[in-house]
Specification:
mainly beta, 7 helices
Amino acid sequence: MHPSGWLRSVVFIFILTFSGSLVFGQKGDFFLTHYSHQSEALDNINFDIAQDEKGVICIANRAGILRFDGRNWEHINTPSAAFSLTYNATDKTIYIGGYDGLGKLVRNKENSFVYESLIDSTQHIGEIFSVVIRGDLLYGLSNSAIVKYNLKTKKTSSIISKYSGELYKLFELGEDIYVSTEKSGLQKVGESSLEETMSKKFDRINVEFIAKHPEKEQYLFGLLDNTLKLYNGSNVVNLDIKDDDAYLQNSEITDGIWINDSLSAVATLKGGVIFINHRRKTIEQIVNYQSGLPDNEIFAFAEDSNGGIWVAHSAGFTRISPGLPFRNFNKFEGLEGNILSVINHNDSLYVGTSMGLYFLEKVQDYEDIVYKEQQVITTTKSVPEAEKPKRKKGLFGFLKSNKEEEPTTNTVTTSRTVTRNKVRQELKSISYRYKKVEGLNSKVFHFMATEDKLFCAGLDGLYQIKNTEAIVITRDPIHTFSIAKKNQKVFAATYADELKVFDINTNERVMADVLSDFRDHIQHIFEDDNGLIWISSTDEIYFLELDGEDIIGSEHYPITNPFYFNTFGGVKDEMVYFINESGTFSIDPEKNTVNKIDDISAKKYLTGSNGEVWIYDGENWTKIAESNSSKKLNLLSVFKNINYISSDDKDDYWVVTENDELYKLTDSNDKIISPYELYLKRIKTPLESLLPYDKMKFDQENSSLLFEFAQPEFSGILDIKYQYKLEGLNKDWSDWSGNYNIVNFSYLPEGNYTLKMRSKDILGKVSEIEPISFEIVPPYWKRPWFYALEFTVLALLLFITVRLKKLGFKYRLVSRLLALITLIIIIEFIQTIAENEFASQSTPVIDFLIQITIAIIVLPIESVIRKFIFKEKNVQILDFIQIKNKKDK
């Protein structure tokens, strides 16, 4: 092709990458939580997601319905594959559309969820791919018909698609139900037929999804041609998203959710989830394989009531949390190695890893737009005027000058239009990536900064960072270092146990002679409010008082540290504190001693940027010598196994975890992080499973009770623990444990009980349910009515005995035998009552001793009763034998 051929093109695109900007406005990636049922009997072919009134996530799977409360999975069998779900708040029921038609989830006698069909077995309505509820009507969509099921009358009717072709999906729009069709676009579902829409705005548009604003009557339309529209109830306008890479267009949209006033989420077939700011008409964020999503193909898409976006894919489920105040910063390209440290200095993010130092840069992609511009070119020429004819001089011609006239010229202006190719640069996109700082190729542990200077240290030495350049101060491997702002010096402890000092302005080494003999394994260095330099090592604490480059005062304090714990220090209210795993210490300058304040209560402590010492007490993070916390500091507790913490001048916190993740904490609103309500899931006995009810009673023979509680929580960061107390058995609450959502009592004595249960998340929020009261009923032979019956029988036996005795010697043997039986029964009766009252659930030996004690106590009672029955002083059992022997003779 001739070179001029491409010049005739209207647009020529050349991508110009500009990457010199360190100032970043990147908000980071949304927080992701991944789930999988881990069952070999189930696959991850999921079609729909819904949520019930308890917050439990329900999933339509090829093998049935899955229920998930954040901890436990439950599989409910269905006759065939389930395709669509909808929740009806009126009757608190999940309705299902599937291969066998319509159904719902109900509880059986064992209090377990089971599938119940809504369609008579004689009816065949076909596969139901989409279900929607409006009032008392349940709408189910098949390929060629819409089934309407009345929830009250339980009657079914159908609407056949005659002229609209195949039916695709049902939508709620205002007060009506609409269906997307093959030939007629969007149609309204009427009483008995499909109707044309009232407005031509919906004519011939092929809708993939309709997402309603969470509060307003506004709707986001996603169309089959991968375009978006906004509908406010009267007008439909195009939503033209700035997408120069055509990512949205090429990803093939499938579903959408309107999250809030400015943010919507669009699920795609090939590009993951695209978050759109429809106010700015820009792509806010793309959650795909590169940013942590296991798969870009989205099977199902839904939003829970806490604002989490659920995504079903081939690897299971991912919950995206756009509302959480955490943003991930380790997914950007270019970062290598394990993350060790981080600092945000003057709006520039620097990350130290095991492979060196990196900064996050803003990459602006420009495109050269070649366009044609017409220019009018004007040419000016001087043209001689035509020669005039000469006149005769005449009679007096000689009187005139003989000088010839000069020729005259005319100015001629001509114009012509010329088309020229011109180039202008337009910003195509802005992205972010990590770029390595040259010269640092190994571990970077620490950052220290002043208002205009940034320093870092690690195995490659100590460096000052100026934008993208690392200026070497020393190449000795640095264990720790600190900036002494009042003294204008940088103190650095090397791996060779040396202490080196550098001028903060010139980076030149100073005080080399003064400290040449100093050798110790230094663990922390800091400057107090008075300009004293404090140094902690494995077994010593030092301070240095400087005047310029001279040491005018110093002291050292020995500490007992047999396990070589790291010892860090800090200042509060002009008091110097130190901490290690043995406890917290303070310096008494008058007595020249180190005093232990208290034993260690911290589960973890570490140093962060600028030498800040952070302490975790098992619930909250605080800085050393600070007792007060804040809501934002409390939110740090949701991160498990923190390795590094950095705070910036905007009061934002940067966190590095043991899982090599980097997060930015931007908000203190902990209300957006909360679990659902705690509830009792079931009560299980050896015979049945049931829900609580008033005046519950259980037989003592079956008093093995299991109480299972649930509190759905899907962010995966709140670490919910449980605590219980059974009044009637225990006076104290149990310890907090994550396993106490299931409470099992293998045996309970008879009596009245009240079970109290509460939960606590990692932020300290406590939830408690209503107390559960129940009674353990003793076996029938221990119940009052049986005692009354026994007493009646005994009284009758006594009466018969007395009557027989009055009949004379003839009935003496029978009378005495009956009296003896009565006496034995009475004694056993008394002993049974006593044992029931005093017996313990302990060892057989103790029970045996209790029985002996009861027998000794009952002995006098037995003597009285025996005398009353026999009315003789010494009646022995041998008397019956003697009488019998006499008769035999």
